[in-house]
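Is this the right way to post structure tokens for a design question? Let me know if I should format differently. Anyway, here goes:
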């Protein structure tokens, strides 16, 4: 109530002193502040972490893979029961689009991913701690020959190197890293 009274009093002073033009300018400035505040509240997806969060908000589950293609992130999410699989595109502005949605997956195919102690998001953090830069992709690696499962995380550093880090699915530790000077990929 006090705020409304103060705004009304201020508007009256503006009208008396400056006329209608000043009042319109003052109202326009107030509208601009409101629009700016609303725009700041919209989440963006400029990083892998933000894209992952946007995808999981749209389709709850476990990220199976994520990679950047230009300004769009491709994110595959498996539902927590293993029966659902969503292929999502996340734009830089945070908009999520479903490219494909499957609800009759075999849960046994995803049991190791769902049971993993380390999520894609945690694997990204571990890889970034070992190699500062920007995550470009993360994917669950399923060794069909009976080997251990792991997360493969691609990190691009500011010096142009690309690091492929393997992150253990149980401990979250980086177990292997390989550096490439530049893979010639123009996805930026």
């Amino acid at each position: 109530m006090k705020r409304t009274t103060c705004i009304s009093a201020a508007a009256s002073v503006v009208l008396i002193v400056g006329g209608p033009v000043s009042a319109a300018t003052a109202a326009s400035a107030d509208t601009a502040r409101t629009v700016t505040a609303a725009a700041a509240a919209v989440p963006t997806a400029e990083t892998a972490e933000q894209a992952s969060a946007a995808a999981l908000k749209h389709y709850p589950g476990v990220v199976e893979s994520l990679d950047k293609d230009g300004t769009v992130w491709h994110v595959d999410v498996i539902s927590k029961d293993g029966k659902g699989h969503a292929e999502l595109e996340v734009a830089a502005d945070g908009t999520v689009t479903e490219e494909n949605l499957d609800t009759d997956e075999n849960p046994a195919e995803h049991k190791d991913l769902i049971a993993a102690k380390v999520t894609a998001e945690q694997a990204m953090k571990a890889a970034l701690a070992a190699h500062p830069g920007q995550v470009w992709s993360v994917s669950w690696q399923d060794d069909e020959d009976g080997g251990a499962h792991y997360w493969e995380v691609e990190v691009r550093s500011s010096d142009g190197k690309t690091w492929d880090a393997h992150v253990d699915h149980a401990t979250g530790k980086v177990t292997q890293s390989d550096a490439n000077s530049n893979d010639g990929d123009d996805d930026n």
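Format looks fine. Someone answered above. Worth noting: The longest strand covers residues 62-69. Confidence is low (pLDDT under 50) at residues 1-17, 20-42, 183-188.
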